[in-house]
Structure to design on (579 residues):
């Protein structure tokens, strides 16, 4: 407040608090990345140390420049029927008349008028100017207004474009607005008695505030001041404006409005930012909740799929069980004393019969191909379905370039990899080494038959050849019983060989079954885990980003609420009329 001397201690303290608040808010918007708002707050902070700003606004040809000239008592600004002001003009106090172009859209005019020591008059381009950029120039400067004098012409009062602009002033920016009805010299008293109520009524009805309307003739006022014509000056009614601006609005009122102007601006901006932040937080909460539901669904789906794959494990075990059944049937039919005795005279040997029966198309181990195909199709189908669930999350992140797309070719690649691994590993189970196994059963059969014949030969020889001799030493009954017992033992040789072979091969088949089911289950579970983990990683990335963004928004909202409390507290200290 170095350029403005304030004697009221309470008001001075308030202005200091507002200046400190603006500095904090500027830092807040800088951290949020709102550079436009940061710049505007910076402008308002600098303006706290400058004279009171009164912005003159209105449509072109409404008489803004003429009005300012009438206040100054001299034709300082150029006037005309076409837009004459192409940028914002600051009129400030100076020892002499001077003009300076501050930037592309802002210039300064100095003039030695005492009233300009406490105020800065701001002339703006017409709000309905044919130059499209003018409206943007005004909106980028209006936040600096501490009082807006809006000029409307009696020949077209409160047009639609004027109504929209006043709504912007009051609604968005919360500015104090004084409406000046200019060019009353063009209308009769009866017409003016209709126009002024029309403006008041429509402002209240359409804009929601009861305006102060002052009717003047800037043209008459300028002429009266130039000619010192007091009667003409009275008829121009410029005195009511001057009394309002320079007398009723004393220094303390101006300073209070100076503090309230940025507070009202902040109040409006904070409301918008708070709404935006709350909307974002609500959206992030919804997205995070959706991700958590998806993660729970993925966990359940993984358990369901792993449980379902047990069906394929049982089918594989069943295939090996059927193999044992067929082998058991083969041994029970062909691995008997009678069958082996018959095979001595048969063309087809037992090994050939084994290879023929066990390698036939009806071999249960051929079911492994079907089980593998079914299981791979099941995994691929469900994996594709799971990825479709995650597509919304992937799309959101893909737009940021964070996530690589998993296309149809990837599903086929994974399917082929899994199918190849399972079939390659199961080859040894499907082929079952039939040649070696046929040789083994041939050896077992031949050995059993030889042992059987040898044992039976001994029994016959004992009865026929040695029976007479043995009876010299032993009773005949004992010799007969021994021979019969020896023959009986011979008949148990082949069943025993069959039992031993059956036990050994069943053990190997069970081992094969266990290895096959374990490998298949492991590969299927790995395929399930792989796609689940891929999706979890994808949505986790999305979730982590949303968590981070939500935390930032919540932090900003908390800081914004604290700043809003400070704004409300400072506004509550004011007694100024802001209608």
């Amino acid at each position: 407040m170095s350029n403005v001397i304030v004697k009221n201690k309470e008001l001075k303290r308030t202005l200091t608090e507002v200046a400190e608040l603006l500095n904090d808010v500027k830092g807040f918007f800088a951290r949020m990345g709102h550079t436009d708002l940061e710049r505007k707050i910076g402008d308002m902070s600098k303006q706290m140390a400058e004279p009171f700003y009164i912005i003159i606004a209105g449509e072109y040809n409404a008489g803004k420049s003429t009005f300012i000239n009438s206040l100054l008592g001299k034709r300082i600004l150029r006037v005309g029927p076409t837009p004459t002001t192409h940028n914002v003009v600051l009129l400030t106090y100076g020892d002499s008349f001077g003009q300076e172009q501050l930037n592309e859209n802002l210039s300064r005019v100095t003039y030695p008028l005492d009233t300009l020591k406490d105020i800065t008059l701001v002339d703006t381009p017409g709000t309905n100017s044919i130059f499209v950029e003018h409206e943007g120039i005004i909106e980028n400067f209006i936040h600096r207004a501490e009082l807006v004098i809006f000029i409307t012409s009696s020949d077209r009062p409160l047009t639609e474009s004027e109504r929209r602009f006043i709504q912007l002033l009051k609604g968005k920016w919360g500015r104090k607005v004084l409406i000046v009805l200019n060019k009353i010299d063009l209308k009769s008293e009866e017409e003016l008695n209709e126009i002024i109520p029309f403006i008041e009524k429509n402002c209240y009805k359409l804009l929601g505030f009861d305006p102060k309307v002052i009717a003047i003739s800037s043209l008459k006022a300028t002429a009266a001041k130039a000619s010192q014509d007091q009667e003409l000056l009275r008829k121009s009614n410029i005195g009511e404006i001057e009394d309002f601006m320079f007398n009723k609005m004393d220094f303390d009122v101006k300073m209070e409005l100076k503090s309230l102007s940025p507070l009202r601006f902040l109040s409006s901006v904070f409301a918008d930012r708070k709404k935006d932040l709350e909307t974002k937080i609500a959206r992030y909460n919804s997205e995070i909740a959706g991700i958590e539901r998806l993660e729970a669904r993925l966990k359940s789906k993984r358990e369901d799929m792993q449980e379902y794959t047990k069906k394929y494990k049982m089918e594989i075990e069943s295939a090996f069980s059927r193999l044992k059944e067929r082998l058991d049937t083969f041994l029970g039919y062909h691995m008997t004393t009678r069958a082996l005795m018959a095979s001595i005279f048969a063309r087809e040997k037992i090994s050939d019969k084994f290879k023929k029966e066990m390698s036939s198309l009806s071999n249960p181990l051929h079911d492994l191909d079907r089980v593998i195909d079914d299981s791979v199709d099941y995994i691929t189908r469900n994996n594709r379905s799971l990825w479709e669930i995650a597509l919304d999350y992937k799309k959101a992140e893909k737009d940021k370039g964070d996530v690589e797309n998993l296309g149809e070719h990837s599903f086929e690649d994974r399917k082929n990899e899994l199918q190849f691994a399972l079939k390659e590993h199961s080859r040894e189970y499907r082929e079952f080494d039939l040649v070696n196994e046929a040789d083994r059963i041939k050896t077992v059969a031949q050995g059993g038959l030889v042992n059987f014949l040898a044992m039976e030969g001994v029994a016959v020889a004992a009865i026929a050849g040695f029976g007479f001799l043995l009876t010299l030493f032993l009773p005949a009954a004992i010799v007969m019983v021994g021979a019969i017992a020896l023959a009986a033992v011979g008949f148990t040789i082949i069943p025993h060989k069959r039992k031993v072979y059956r036990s050994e091969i069943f053990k190997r088949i069970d081992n094969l079954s266990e290895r096959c089911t374990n490998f298949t289950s492991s590969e299927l579970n790995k395929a399930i885990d792989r796609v689940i983990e891929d999706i979890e990683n994808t949505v986790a990335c999305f979730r982590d980003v949303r968590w981070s963004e939500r935390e930032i928004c919540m932090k900003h909202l908390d800081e914004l609420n604290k700043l809003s409390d400070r704004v409300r507290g400072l506004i509550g200290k004011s007694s100024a009329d802001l209608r």
User: Anything to note?
Assistant: The first helix runs from residue 9 to 32. The radius of gyration is 52 Å.
